[in-house]
Amino acid sequence: MESYDLIILGGGLAGMCAAVEAGEQGIDVLLLEKQDELGGSTVLSSGYMAFAGTDMQENAGIIDSTESLLADMTEVGGGVNDPTLVAEYGKHQLETYQWLVNHDIEFRSLEAVSGHSVPRGHIIDPHQAIQSLYKRVKQLANVTVYFNAPARRLLKNAEGRIDTVLYDTDGEERKAVASKGVLIASGGFAKSEELLGQFAPQLKGALRIGGAGNQGDGIRMAWEHGAWMKDLPYLNGTYGFHPSAAGKLKSQGLAFYKGAIMVNQLGRRFVNESISYKLLGKAAFDQPEQISYQVWDQTVMDKGVLDDPLYDFELLKKRRLLYKADTLEELADCIDVPVEVLEETISRYNQGVQNGEDPDFGRSSLTHNYGKPTAIETAPFYAFESTVAMLATYAGISVNAKAQVVNPYGESIPGLYAAGEVTGGFHGAGYMTGSSLGKAAVFGRLAVKAAVSENAVV
After folding, report:
1. Residue 402: closest CA among 414, 388, 386
2. How far apart are CA 392 and CA 236, in angstroms?
């Protein structure tokens, strides 16, 4: 039987940050990756990470703070986020940003996105990030990585502590023992029709575009040992994907955060476009045929950001995914909505912008508390057909501030840790863009520190 200090299940951002942290602390680590490559949902993400008070913000003249970051996170989460997790994120977010920089993660630019009061979306290339961490892992002789090695079950020792992992590799079942603990970083369940049917039946019909390995394996393994769950009632899809995103290209655009409006197939607005795109997803999924359109003008088009995963409108145009017309009448004909309704909808919206008050949905910003809406009046006009996708599940295993998995009574399960998408409680009822990758990095490292300092004894 193989013996290690720590076993990590999953090679996304949480697992890789944990592997590097543990390796640099000198403990023996085994990382088991279910797929034949690293990355999981991380490499399918937009690459935003939510940090505050960074040098990038300072250089851009952006004033931000941990307090503002946490306040926004709690507001977007509907106040049902676990306050201990949010506070712990605040304590370590800036240090984690610097740790990533020191490990050659390249932060390219800043943008304000869902839930941001100022631009705090620090954009990475997820593939570059994972490969940089893997490069560091390969320099650490005490870290072993197995690919195509799915974990199957977790076992307790005679003292009731999780210390053994059953896993498959090369067609045979093997066992590995971990003296300091097991860290579940295996992602969510966006590709498990069984679990989605159990916990999010309302999302039947949403595109399924999560990581291929996201079948909920880690959640099941934790359940077997009494893990509690958090945030399942708040499961929503992610809005802004083109209906073709179930294929090879995951085309997504969030033009509404730059000033577009959202209309349904009747040509009517149905929501305040500045709220979290998880909540927008819920509203959009209630529309006829679960299809809506983002509609904007040249003023918004000019706000597009080249190579940005969410704001590169020219890329959508090059992919022939945008409708473009010189008049609203022509645009209405393109997207097959009643022209008189679309014209009235936009006229009413524009009047609200002029008056400084949206009479229908109270929109007063571009995203959360940032930016001012502009009238949609400068030709040409554009439309982007959009729907909802299950990309990540943002709900899962309950953990405490040390990333220890807890039971229904809030008691830690000895030897068991979890970090990243597999965990719940952090996001609450909404989602701030960048907080998912952010929590993966923060709590992946915190789990290692807790396992090492406490030797997994609580």
Report:
1. 414
2. 9
